[in-house]
Amino acid sequence: MGACASHRGARYVLRTATSDDLGGARAVMLDTIYRDLRSGYVPRWHADIVDPETAYLRPERCTLLVIENRGEIVATGAVRDRGPQAPPNPQWVADRFPSGTTAQLCRIYVRPEHRRHGLARQLVRELGEFAARAGGYTALYLHTDPAVPGAEPFWRSLAREVCDERTLPGGGQGIVHFELPMPAPGATGTPAQ
Fold it and tell me: Is the N end or the C end of the chain the one with fewer CB atoms within 10 Å?
């Protein structure tokens, strides 16, 4: 890890978060759930944002990455070691991505003024490589809210759709579930499609 992108004089540094980064990471996450997701803080969905140290820094097979620009955290991305739960997700999706063997990519958020510089793609690549190195994971899973501008096309460019809940009777939660290819341990570069 280290310098990951440069754009118009802006220097971005991607690294594993430390406890000193948690305030900045939490700010990016909370701003995103209020501004982009428009859900606000919901304890059952966002407990990891309140306590990212317990969720991401302590467990060996979890991580939180941050991207810094001029001393400010401008992007986040994480791996958690649990799959989607049913409910609220369809049972067959939960069965396909069981906790323990599923690396769930989450909290891949970039501040609006830093978007379109390849930061999210860099985070996805690094998170996939982390999951491969951690061992024991057989799947890379994520879900997204297609109402967030740009989210669905971004994920469709990297991942394979598993379930679009908008097509289910009643529309489910309206989210789209994706799977990414698991990189080979020690591999570098963007995950193959």
Answer: C
| SS3 assignment for 63-97 | EEEEEEECCEEEEEEEEECCCCCCCCCCHHHHHHC
Residue with tokens 């740009």: 150
Looking at the domain assignment, is residue 93 inside a domain? Answer: yes
The residue ranges of the chain whose pLDDT is under 50 are 190-193
The residues that bridge with 80 in the sheet, in sequence order, are 104
pTM (2 d.p.): 0.89
Query: Looking at residue 91, which CATH number applies to its domain?
Result: 3.40.630.30
Residue 187 lies in a domain: no
> Which range marks the domain in which residue 26 is found?
2-180
Q: Per the domain annotation, does 190 fall within a domain?
A: no
Q: How many CA atoms lie within 13 A of 41 on its CB side?
A: 12
pLDDT in tens, 71-102: 999 999 999 999 999 999 999 999 999 999 99
